[in-house]
Every structure is written in C-alpha cells, then in structure tokens.
Amino acid sequence: MPALLTIDDLHISYGAREVLKGISIRLDEGEIVTVLGANGAGKSTLLQAVCGLIPIAGGRVTYAGAVLNKVPAYDIVVKGISLSPEGRRVFPTHSVEENLNLGAFTRRKHADEIVRAKERVHSLFPILKERSRQLAGTLSGGEQQMLAIGRALMSNPRVLLLDEPSLGLAPILVKQIFEIIREINAQGTSILLVEQNAHKSLNIASRGYVLENGRIAAEGPAAMLKSDEKIQEAYLGGTALKKKKE
User: Fold this and answer.
1) What angle, 0 to 180 degrees and rounded to 10, lies between the N-to-C axes of helices 111-124 and 141-153?
2) Alpha-carbon span 63 to 47, nearest angstrom
3) What are residue 221's DSSP bridge partners?
4) What is the Cα gyration radius of the chain?
5) 112 in Cβ contact with 156 (< 8 Å)
6) Long-range CB contacts (within 8 A, 24+) of 223-226
7) Distance in angstroms (rounded) separating the CA atoms of residues 183 and 5
8) Quick one: three-class SS letters along 93-130?
C-alpha cells in the first residue's frame, strides 16, 4: 500500500546554505513516526517544507498520491495536513476560543463541523474549555502547548505535524502531552513528530528517523533505534551524535 505521506530526496536551501540534503521519509496511514536530531539538524525545516511554508529546492513531497511541491500552504491545510509549530505560536492577545476558531478557517462555512471539532479538542484538553475566554498569552506554557495542538486539530487533519511539543515543559506535563498524542493517533490521525525527547517519542512511535547535519543518520523501527548504542549515547544520554570510540 502506498504511504500516506512521502518525502523523497528532499533538498532545502537558505541562500547558499543547504539545510536538508536529500531527506527521504515515509508516513503510513495510522502511524506515529518520529524525527530525532540535535538543534540545527533540519527538523523544523522539514516540517515547514511539508506545509508549504518554505520553497523546495529539490525532491518532492507527496500526500495521498498528490505532489505538494507547488501547492500553497493554505491548500495543504485544506487537503488534510496541519502543523503545531515549535514555540506554540498562539495569538497572545486573542482568547483561547478565538485561537481555536482561527484553526478552523478552512471550515468557516460549515458551522456544524467547527462545533464537532471543538468538542473533540475540549475532550482532549478540558482545560481549554475552562479557559475559553482567557487570553492565550496569559496561559501557562503547558496550556499554550495544548492550545497549539488543539488549534491544529480544528481543521480535522488526516496528518498532524508536531514540532517539539514537549519543549520547555515540566516532566508531568510532558507525560500528559505524550499521552494525548497517543490518543489523537488512536482516534485515526497519522502523526509526524519532531522531538528532542527521544525516550518519550520512541515509546509512542512505530518508526523513527535521526537527522544529523541535514541528512538521515539512522532510521528504522522505534524498538531498534532504542536499542542502538549510537542512538542511546547520542539521544537517550543527551549528547551529540558521534562515532563510537575505537
């Protein structure tokens, strides 16, 4: 069966600097696939390219059989791919309710669908219902992360791209976020997860890729990556990826 999302030999450049150097990744229907890597490895650039936020220099991105290279970001959301960005990027002077409504811009002519999407978000994140009239900028970091994910879900995506959802959160909130990610997947949403917390991401993913300097340094089933000595030393121990000493 063809993959739901295929990234094939992807090249991305910022001016003369090549950031991604021939990346190939696949996401099958119903999967959670994680992308690991140190800061500057190109993880966020990868997600932004899939979303149409930055131009593709070479290779292609294919979703449900259609090539997305020249598709505007707006239409990529309409087709079924949504991004929860690194740093949350909520609209701080808008209420929680308004932030969620902005996430539903592709459905603004279908009020009943917006109501159902919001009910789903509230069931996953009950605190957002309680805080519906509160300004997003006054939420805690964990609540803002929940809002960012909830906003991305308002378009009812078939593929959810998550960029560092645990960044800067207390351990108890990290545990909660990853439980919710697993639940979103169980509800039928395929997830491409960019994350520095290798322990948590490999525990919920079926497969993973490791990016280093814009290239795939390792890939395979999550269980295999967890047992790989280099991966353990590099990410499960928190240091940079390096060759084993002789």
Assistant:
1) 140
2) 13
3) 207
4) 18
5) no
6) 225/36, 226/202
7) 20
8) CCEHHHHHHHHCHHHCCCHHHHHHHHHHHHHHCHHHHH
CA separation for the pair 118, 66 (Å, rounded) = 29
Domain chopping of the chain, boundaries? 5-80+157-236, 94-156
How far is Cα 144 from Cα 134, in angstroms, rounded to an integer? 11
Looking at domain 5-80+157-236, what is its CATH homologous superfamily?
Answer: P-loop containing nucleotide triphosphate hydrolases (3.40.50.300)
**Angle (CA) 231 236 239, round 5°:** 80
Of 31, 29, 3, 25, the C-alpha closest to 206 is 31
In a structure prediction context, what are the per-residue pLDDT tens digits for the chain, which is 246 residues long? 789 999 999 999 988 888 999 999 999 999 999 999 888 788 999 999 999 999 999 999 999 999 999 999 999 999 999 999 987 789 899 999 999 999 988 777 778 888 999 999 999 999 999 999 999 999 998 899 999 999 999 999 999 999 999 888 888 899 999 999 999 999 999 999 998 888 899 999 999 999 988 999 899 999 999 888 777 777 665 443 343 333
Burial label for 18, CB within 10 Å (0-12, 13-18, 19+), is: middle
The two three-digit tokens of residue 184, written as one number: 């979103």
- Identity (one letter) of the amino acid at 65? G
